[in-house]
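Hey, resending since the last one bounced:
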Amino acid sequence: MKHTVKATWMRGGTSKCWVFERSALEVPGFTVDEVLLRLFGSPDPRQIDGVGGGSSTTSKAVILSPSDQPGVDIDYTFAQVGIEQGVVDWGSNCGNCSAVIAPYALKHGWIEAEDGLATVHIRNTNTGQLLIERMNLDGTQSAAFIPGVPFPGQAVEIGFLDPAGGTTGQLFPAGDRLSTLQVAGSGSHPGFEASATLIDAGAPMVIITAAQAGLDAADFSDWPAQALAESDRLDRIRRAGAVAMGLSSSAEAAQRAIPKLAIVQAADAGGEDDFRVMMLSMGAPHPALAITGSVGLTMAARQPGTAIANLLPTAPGEVLRMQTPAGQIQTWQRQIEGRTAVGTTRTARELAEAQLSFDPVALPGVQATAALADGAPLAPASAQLLDDPPPHKRRTVFASVAVFAALGLGATLLGGGLLNPPATTADGDYAGETLELVIPLAEGGGTDTWARFVGQEFAHSIPGDPGFAPVNEAGGEGITGSNRFATSAAGNGTELLVSTATTVVPWVLERDVVRYSFDKLEPVLVNGTGGVIYARTAAGVDGVKDLVDRKKPLVFGGITATGLDLTTLVAFDLLEADISATFGFEGRGPVNLALQRGEVDIDYTTTSSYHSAVEPIAEEGTATVLMSFGQLDENGSVVRDPNFPHAPTVVEVYEQLHGHAPEGPKLQAYKTLLGLTYTYQKGLWAPKGTPPEAVALLRESAHELSQDPGFNDKAEEILGGYPIVADEQLAQRVEDAYTVTGETKSYVTALLKDSYGIEIN
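The structure tokens again:
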């Protein structure tokens, strides 16, 4: 029987959550856990059949109701909905999601504002923690910004009242401010000791230094990718902390959500931060900071002898400044209503109101035979749905898992080897197989769009018409998913890796977080793009001659010097242009807007964005197109880009400026990067060891697709007219293009260090 569940989708801080009124989750015959799992589409890593976002920060539920407790306005229960597991974790609070409570309560008439100030007293039922939230409604805080969120929202001040010991009863559950953990071994990895601060404030947390985490030699910007590479070791430390804090009887039984793990490091002397910190949420680096975690960090910084206090040159004042991967977050500790309060300011915004569809999955006999792990029967359908879950207890819903497992078994019976003969990729026919494309970047970007379009068309061109499954494994600037592919991809031709300049350049630079190597993969097809360099005319740029002998350097706006920007930086160095650079923009779109505002002077864009981003301002005269990057021909020479036939190439501009053709290491480096990041910018790769027959079939299919006029007509806009390359010379072409000499690597490394202060590690 189909049901609908009323919900509001909101952003709170750096998390997204579905907000439910407690009564809305009363679905006859089902527990709250079962309802949430079905609504969110779990278990499934993509949560494709539900409203979950496929990440720990977007798979959260907030359950609210007016409170009958004295001095409390709202009762708030938080649920962390599992993604790959059919589990709802009720053991902790989420501070970011807490930010939605005040605006929700005000909108629905549960509280009233006085003198332009809305104040709400909240009880978190997971932990018993009391919170107080305040919103200034005079309009001055309705469009505030916080790190990790590109758009503004209503500012909400969140204070945790007397947060010490909310879960365990003690601020330091293990007794010491710095504990020595006995971390168990795993597989071939032996056990070891780790020093950590175990604190319970806001939420239980294990705090370790960067040295304990093995990140002390890594640049802070590389921590997210490096931490994922060390995820098993870090989680073993966290689980050992859970045992030492009395949260679990064994490391194996420790919950995923609590305790949290924070990694800290001293800030640079004289800087604007007190210390650096990165938190892990459900095993993944948090994009900014869990607010419940920030409470513990704030109190730990004020307790001598903790992992944080030992990093600080002086005791902190009322405000603490923490540098996170998304930027600086400030917290405070003060007295409110006569009680100690620790908190920060978040923003919140309502995204949508919805009626969610709850379609119970029921197969004959499944629920009747499902049982809990200890053999006890499932709770009856009439079980109370609204009781507050006890702290630290996770309800594992085996009924839901059994349903999904039964569905999976059914799919196997109907589409697998029991009724059909085993499929193979080495017999010239992919019938019965599914072609999986691992896209190591987030959904919605240019690479994702390219991969889904090319992958769908490519799958249809392969004999046997296999299924098509794009899988996004975002994280670490594309490195995380590529690393995973290199170590565990299926070697039968059914799993291919999508590459782009973002993943190729870190490999070229031999960054220590990179575990993949393109010389150990088989190219299946490659596709290029092009681009132009343009400048702001108000900066005194009318033509290429204005790039040199300047009184003041032109400011280049960059995203990261170790990505696609690198080709542009090498071009500037080859031309001997007078350029300075500022990095940290979130995309080329923001750089383009900054150029139009006069904040930067020179930029580049790829072919796909040229007509919308550059052509209009060039036509109105506020920008000048200076040159194209060009393309490499079959002889390795730089030739004009067919999409920009009237724009000189970087090599031609050098001749105009200096009166002779370029040569030497700089030219070779430019040509190498041009091939890697433009002429062969994107590609599909199979693991080494894939049957040669399968690789040959994939390449032949890709080549036939590239010759199909119907495909090329459809691909014109997405591929920009640059052809799919998968001919007989593909392997040799790619090998030549992806061969980077030691001289080129040394030159690029020196350029980044000497000109931009960036050291590669």
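Residues 362-423 have pLDDT under 50 and may be disordered.

Sorry for the duplicate.
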